[in-house]
Amino acid sequence: MKILLSGATGFIGRSLLKKLLTANHHIYALVRQVDNRLDASINQLTLASLSVLNEQFDVIINLAGENIASRPWTKKRKQTLLNSRVELTNNIKSSLKYPPKLLISMSAVGYYGVASQGVFYESTPPKEGFSHDLCAAWEASATAFYQDQTRVVIFRLGVVLGDGGALSKMRTPFLFGLGGPIAGGKQWFSWVHIDDVVEAIFTAIDDQTYTGAYNLVAPQLIEQDHFAKSYAASLNRPAALPTPKWMLKLLFGEMACLLTEGAKIVPQKLEKQGFRFCYTNIDEALLQIEQVRH
């Protein structure tokens, strides 16, 4: 297959490429400029070179997007987050000479907005807020590919756990015994192991029945204090130091809601289609990740 990947050097992209490169695919990476971190067998394309490429892709996997939680949501930052998702997806579509057979695009459980009550399936109406607006706009730019008879699959990700990503930022404070429940710790914590993200992408490529939006979160429903205790235990550390809600609001402003609120998200569509998660228990998932590091 001819597969185009955006966000190839990101946390998910790196893990996905490892598996893609072991298969007999022609891999293209969409880059701003030539990136020496990528394997020499990967064809690197900019938007400009994509627009003159006279080929049709079997699959486009759209992973690119600025980190939503890396800095406070100023007006300028919100626009950057939108552009890195929506504008890029629109630019990919307009640059292609031929539509792809399949588009797999990422989204997030932030699609459901800031909520602590209720259960959210793929069909549940979302709550208002910037995280919903951002994800909804990103998903709309992906579903525009339907106009060209492209099959579209959207994965609404929980916190992706692996050697890198969110855990790499949490690891140091937890190692020093500074990790613990956030804002009481009773908010829901939607998580998924990186291996299950990669497996879901491969399953969507192979299984023609996959279409539309899917909650890509582990089926185990846990609260944030459960995660904090499990992660601390995987590092042989305590998880006793709580972080108050007011401090997070002071530090992060509106963005603090990503940490202080959490909806109960259920991977209903994946379970109905028989997708089998490799990691359904947070303790086992975190222990495996630590073992991989050593």
Topology record:
Blueprint: E1 2-6, H1 11-20, E2 26-30, E3 43-45, H2 47-50, E4 59-62, H3 75-95, E5 102-108, E6 119-120, H4 130-143, E7 151-157, E8 159-162, H5 165-175, E9 188-189, E10 191-193, H6 194-206, E11 212-216, E12 222-223, H7 224-234, H8 245-252, H9 257-260, E13 264-265, H10 268-272, H11 282-293
Parallel strand pairs: 1-2, 1-4, 2-3, 4-5, 5-7, 6-13, 7-11, 8-10
Antiparallel strand pairs: 9-12
Helix pairs in contact: 1-6, 3-4, 7-11
Family: Belongs to the NAD(P)-dependent epimerase/dehydratase family. SDR39U1 subfamily.
Organism: Marinomonas primoryensis
Protein name: TIGR01777 family oxidoreductase
Which structural class do the helices and strands define? alpha/beta
The arrangement of helices and strands along the chain is: EHEEHEHEEHEEHEEHEEHHHEHH
How far is the first residue's CA from the last residue's CA? 35 Å
**CATH-level-2 architecture:** 3-Layer(aba) Sandwich
**Largest sheet: spatial strand order:** 3-2-1-4-5-7-11
Number of domains in the coordinates? Answer: 1
Question: What would the average pLDDT be, to the nearest integer?
Answer: 93
Beta strand count: 13
Query: What proportion of the residues form beta strands (DSSP E)?
Result: 15-25%
Helix content: 25-40%
CATH domain fold name:
Rossmann fold
Shape call: globular
Parts with pLDDT < 50 across at least 5 consecutive residues: none
Largest sheet: 7 strands, parallel
Domain NAD-dependent epimerase/dehydratase: 3-207
Family: Belongs to the NAD(P)-dependent epimerase/dehydratase family. SDR39U1 subfamily.
Domain DUF1731: 243-288
InterPro entries: DUF1731, Epimerase_deHydtase, NAD(P)-bd_dom_sf, SDR39U1
